[in-house]
Design brief:
By secondary structure, this protein is an alpha/beta fold. Helices cover 31% and strands 25% of the residues. The protein has helices spanning 22-31, 48-60, 87-90, 100-107, 125-134, 169-180, 195-206, 238-251, 266-275, 314-323, 341-347, 380-392, 403-406, 412-418; strands at residues 3-7, 12-17, 39-42, 63-66, 73-76, 84-85, 109-113, 138-142, 145-149, 161-163, 185-189, 210-212, 218-222, 230-233, 253-258, 278-282, 285-290, 301-302, 327-331, 351-355, 358-362, 374-376, 396-400, 422-426. It has a 4-stranded mixed beta sheet with strand order 22-23-1-24, covered by helices on one side. Helix 1 packs parallel to helix 2 (48-60), helix 1 runs parallel beside helix 7 and helix 8 runs parallel beside helix 12. It is elongated, with a radius of gyration of 22 Å. The termini are close together.
Length: 427
């Protein structure tokens, strides 16, 4: 099992290219199921979850081809397609539920395993089922699978007004894709507003879909009878960009983040500027500069749905707060159990105490520094926070179980090393 060995204390300087967004690439790969024509995707990140989604689509009969240029994929879902997503291929990736809407919309049936560890109830997968049932689908859950089909005699889903009980990103994406081929008009109320959803909608529009309001909480889709292929570049990953912003802020230095988009990171950039970090929008990306952690002021924040502070940046910013000056609180409102990185940061010397969904952070500031140790990644963004902490800690830090990191970051250690970090992947 791979690990990362980090020798802390080096500033980061230079340029880094931000990869395509995982959370845009996954639904856009699934969108290829909506047409029999070839779909060309560019700027697809090289990630474990992307490889898993590709295997899933190939299992269904989708032809895939990687192009010589970096991140180029062609997918063609010509008949016959086997509309089934088995447990063996979806157990490690919750985003696999995104095949449900496209399969129902084009083929009228689907058999999709519940993602690993998922139970029908308060988890968002029940929102997917309710929304697609509103569009006329018949869905039952048995033996760990969602069995979906259209009523006898009906060939297409029907337009509907869908209001989810909560804001759900993958639910919005599933309904958006399903509605493109439905009869009549579909209106999504309480829709998620993330940039990745806007990027998916723009791809679907290139395929011939009729969509309005994407990027807002109310999306209107007028169904069409068929969609065509397209050529689409995946939007830059705002979470990868935010992670590098926090890394430079913690270590000090100056870095140009190529392809990063400020409008996708407003809440994070605002907090960084309040902390004392210089973040400027420049031609082709963002430039970040900071004298180092000793100059930073800890920032209180609360995670909310976009355009608020993203839950996917909570752990990374907490690592930054841990080495800044002053005290602050971090409130997590999206996920119930997203403070698992706290215990590992404490092993490095961070002063953090949790009370339910609130973490109280006492920044080390000028009074001390983190101390290198062996830590264990518990999830994707937690692993990124441990890397940031390791970059500023005295001595050596070993981050174990970095397969979590590989799910969402395209060769993070290679990019950091190019910026001057002393970091390597070891067995």
């Amino acid at each position: 099992m791979d690990k990362l060995l980090i020798r802390g204390g080096r500033r980061l300087n230079g340029e880094v290219s931000i990869s395509g967004a995982k959370n845009a690439a996954l639904p856009e790969l699934c969108a290829a199921l909506l047409t029999a024509q070839p779909v060309m995707l560019r700027n697809v990140p090289r990630l474990r979850d992307v490889a898993t989604m590709r295997r899933l689509l190939e299992h269904m009969g989708v032809e895939t081809q990687t192009h010589g240029e970096r991140g180029g994929f062609t997918l063609q879902a010509a008949d016959p397609i086997q509309p089934e997503a088995p447990y063996e291929l979806v157990k490690t990736m919750r985003a696999s539920v995104l095949v449900l809407g496209p399969l129902l919309a084009r083929f009228g049936r689907a058999k999709v395993s519940l993602p690993g560890g998922c139970a029908i109830g308060s988890r968002p997968v029940d929102q997917h089922i309710k929304g697609l049932q509103a569009m006329g689908a018949e869905i039952v859950v048995e033996h760990g699978y969602m069995l979906a089909s259209l009523p006898e005699g009906r060939k297409r889903l029907k337009g509907a007004r869908i209001t989810t009980d909560m804001v759900t990103v993958t639910g919005t994406e599933n309904f958006l894709m399903a509605a493109t081929l439905a009869e009549g008009e579909t209106i999504l109320e309480n829709a998620a507003q993330e940039p990745e959803i806007t990027d998916l909608a723009e791809m679907l529009i290139k395929m011939g879909a009729r969509i309005e309001g994407h990027g807002s909480s109310r999306i209107r889709i007028q169904g069409v009878e068929r969609l065509d292929g397209c050529d689409h570049a995946v939007v830059a990953d705002r979470i990868e960009a935010g992670t590098f912003l926090c890394a430079v802020a913690a270590t000090g230095g100056e870095v140009l983040l190529q392809h990063a988009r400020a409008e996708h990171l407003d809440a994070v950039i605002d907090k960084l500027r309040e902390a004392g970090v210089a973040v400027d929008e420049v031609d082709g990306g963002l430039r970040v500069a900071c004298a180092g952690a000793a100059t930073l002021k800890a920032q209180t924040f609360r995670t909310t749905e976009h355009p608020g502070f993203p839950t996917d940046m909570q752990a990374q910013f907490m690592a930054l707060n841990a080495v800044a000056q002053g005290s602050c609180s971090v409130t997590e409102t999206i996920f119930e159990n997203r403070f698992m990185h706290v215990q590992e940061l404490q092993r490095l010397g961070a002063r953090i105490h949790t009370d339910g969904r609130v973490a109280l952070v006492e920044g080390l500031g000028e009074s001390g520094r983190l101390s290198g140790a062996t830590v264990m990644a518990t999830d994707l963004r937690a692993s990124a926070s441990l890397v940031i902490a390791g970059l500023v800690a005295d001595g050596e830090t070993v981050v174990d179980r970095i397969y979590h990191l590989d799910r969402g970051y395209d060769q993070m250690e290679v990019k950091l090393r190019a910026l001057g970090a002393d970091i390597e992947r070891i067995q």
